[in-house]
Automatic annotation (TrEMBL):
The chain crosses the membrane at residues 81-101. It catalyses: coproporphyrinogen III + O2 + 2 H(+) = protoporphyrinogen IX + 2 CO2 + 2 H2O. It is an enzyme of class 1 (oxidoreductase). The gene is cpox. Keywords: Heme biosynthesis, Membrane, Oxidoreductase, Porphyrin biosynthesis, Transmembrane, Transmembrane helix. Its EC number is 1.3.3.3. PANTHER family: COPROPORPHYRINOGEN III OXIDASE, MITOCHONDRIAL (PTHR10755), OXYGEN-DEPENDENT COPROPORPHYRINOGEN-III OXIDASE, MITOCHONDRIAL (PTHR10755:SF0). This is Oxygen-dependent coproporphyrinogen-III oxidase, mitochondrial. GO terms for molecular function: coproporphyrinogen oxidase activity. Belongs to the aerobic coproporphyrinogen-III oxidase family. Homodimer. The keyword Transmembrane applies.
Amino acid sequence: MATIVICSVKKTAQTTARRCLSSNLKGLASSAVSPLPLTCTHSPPVRLLPGTRWFSRGSSVRFMSHGTAGRAGAGRTRRGALALSGAAAVTAAAAIAGFLANANHFQCAEMATKVSQAVEENEPELDILQRCRGFMSHPVTDIGVLQERKGEMLTKMEMLIMKTQADFCNALQEVDGGTFKVDRWQRTEGGGGISCVMQGGKVFEKAGVNVSVVFGNLTEEAARQMKSRGKVLKGKDGKLPFCAMGVSSVIHPKNPHIPTVHFNYRYFEIEEEDGSKQWWFGGGTDLTPVYVNKEDGFHFHNTLKEACDKHHSQYYPDFKKWCDRYFYIRHRGETRGIGGIFFDDLDSPSQEEAFNFVKSCAHTVVPCYLPIVYKHLNDSFTDEEKDWQQVRRGRYVEFNLVYDRGVKFGLATPGSRIESILMSLPLTARWEYMHEPAKGTLEAEMLEALRNPKEWV
C-alpha cells in the first residue's frame, strides 16, 4: 500500500505547497489556500486491479475482491478515476489521503483528520490577509474589519466558511475539469454573499457552493420561526438585530452511481434589548444516493463519526438520529437520503468549543465525499438507472421547497438572493404518476433503506 509521510509542518508567511506526488497523481498544485508547506515522500504507485475494492473498518484497511456490490449488471467494470491533484494544498492533502498512488479510495478519513488537526493548530497564527488570498473571492466583510476583530467569533466563522468554500470548490474542479462561476452579490438590508456554481460539467450536472453573511433586523416571520424552535427573544422597539452567516453546498452529479451530497454550516447571533447576545451554531452533512452501496455508506458515516468523536462520544449517534428525522419527507413517508449528521441551536458547552466542533465537521466535506466520487467516476449506467435518478431528484426538490428550514428562512428574509437559495435544486428532475419500483429490484432496495433508516457504522 502506498503511504504519504508529512515530514515537516512549518510556520510561514508563504502559502504554497511543494509538489510531492507524481506519476498517477498529477501533483499538488500550489495555492494560497494552504497555510502549511508540506514536504512529502511516497511509495511507488500501486494500481487497482479490475474487480477489487478497498474499504476501511475503524483504523484498519482491507483489500478485498468484489462483484458489483449492490449494483445491477455483474459485468460492469469499476474504473474509478485514478488521479487527483489539489488546487489547494490542504484540500489536496485531505483528499489524496484517500487516493494515494491510486490505491485506496476510502483510506482518507484517518489521514485527513491528522492534516486537519495540523491546520486547526496553525490557522490562528496566520494573517487574515494571507488566508484571504486563497479564497474563491475576497470575503463578504471588508478585510480591514476582519483584521480589527480577528479574535471575535464573527470573524472566525467567516474565515472558516470562506475556506470551506474554497477547499471544496477546488476539489470539485479537479475531478470535473470545469470551473466554478464566482458570483458576488450584495443585500440592500445588509451583507451579501459569494455564490460559486458549476453547471453542465463532465462529472457534475450542477454543483453549487455558497457563502452568505447577512445582517439587519429579523422580520416577524423569521422571528416566529425562531420562537417555534424554543428561542426566547426580546427585541427593542419590535426590532431584533441579527447576523447570520454560513456555507452551504449541494452537488448533483450526472452519473446516478455518484450520490448527491449536501452540507451546511452556519452561525447565528442576535442582539436583545439589553445589549446581550444570543448565539448558536447549526449544520450538518448528508448523502443522497440513488442506489444503495454499503461501502459508500460506511465510509461517509464513519468519516463524520470520527470528526464528532473528537469532541463528544454522543455527538455522532445523536446528530445521526437528528439527521434522519430532519430530512424526512413526511408526505412520502421516506427520508431524502441515507443521512449523515444534522444539528441546530448548538450553544454549549462554550462558544469556542462549539466552533471547534463545527470546524472539525467542515474539514470532513472533502474526505467524506471525494473518495466516493472517484470510486464511481467511470461507472456505466443505463437509461432506466438515469430515469430512477430523476425520480429521486424530484423527491429532493419536494423536501427542499416544503420542509427545508434554511430555504424557508431565506425566503422569509427581505433582500435574500433567490438564485442562491434555490441553487440547491437540480437542473433536471422527474415526477411519474404513482411510481413504485418492482419488488426485488435495486430501486426497491433503495426505497426500503429510505423508508427504514439504518445504522451505517
